Amino acid sequence: MINNLINEYNVKLNKIKKGDKFCEANGEENYHNQSYSAGGIQNNFNGNDNEIWLGFYDNDEYKLLSFFHEMGHLLMTEKELNTNLTTYQYEKAAWRHGYVLARKYNIEFNEDTIKWGKEQLKTYKN
Questions:
Q1: DSSP H or E stretch at residue 91
Q2: Nearest 5°: CA angle at 113, between 108 and 119?
Q3: Are 11 and 51 in contact (CB under 8 A)?
Q4: DSSP strand E in 57-120: where?
Q5: At what angle do helices 87-104 and 111-122 cross, to 10 degrees?
Q6: For 26-74, how does the pLDDT look when each residue is reduced to its tens digit (9 = 90+)?
Q7: How many other C-beta atoms can be found within 10 angstroms of the C-beta atom of residue 23?
Q8: How many domains are contained in the chain?
Q9: Is pLDDT at 123 greater than 90 in this prediction?
Q10: Residue 15's pLDDT is what?
Q11: What is the rounded distance in angstroms from the CA atom of residue 60 to the CA atom of residue 82?
């Protein structure tokens, strides 16, 4: 399913593994239960600009939710990106887009995973 999504949205996916070149360059701790993205599908970036670095996780469902969150970043609209959102508001919008995309593909997350996602978002609240 992830492969279908990255093909549909023209996103380069880097699946991080312990000890790989990304861990060597940036530190393994930066990819444990964490992921990153760059680009923006809604902003007419070309496919080479849409990229996700999907970290390694203690829980497969957390990893899937994180993937959708990073897709949420890529799906943010130009209007959202050009407003003065706080970091918390920006991250909240990315979570919202990610959940909407997951529902579009009939993916639902268990209560524990949703709680984990909320805890991740709270780290951006001042």
A1: helix 87-104
A2: 130
A3: yes
A4: none
A5: 160
A6: 999 999 999 999 887 765 545 457 899 999 999 999 999 999 999 999 9
A7: 18
A8: 1
A9: yes
A10: 96
A11: 33
β-strand pairing of 51-54 with 12-15: parallel
Phi-psi region of 87 (alpha: psi -120 to 50; beta: other; left: phi over 0): alpha
Structure tokens at 47: 């496919």
- Could you read off the pLDDT of 82-110 as tens digits, one per residue? 888 899 999 999 999 999 999 999 999 99
Token pair 């239960």 is found at 33
Q: Coil, strand or helix: which one is 51?
A: strand
Domain of residue 106: give its range: 2-122
Instruction: Please list, in sequence order, all residues whose beta carbon lies within 8 angstroms of the beta carbon of residue 60, skipping any fewer than 6 positions away.
Output: none
Tokens matching residue 59: 């829980």
DSSP 102: H
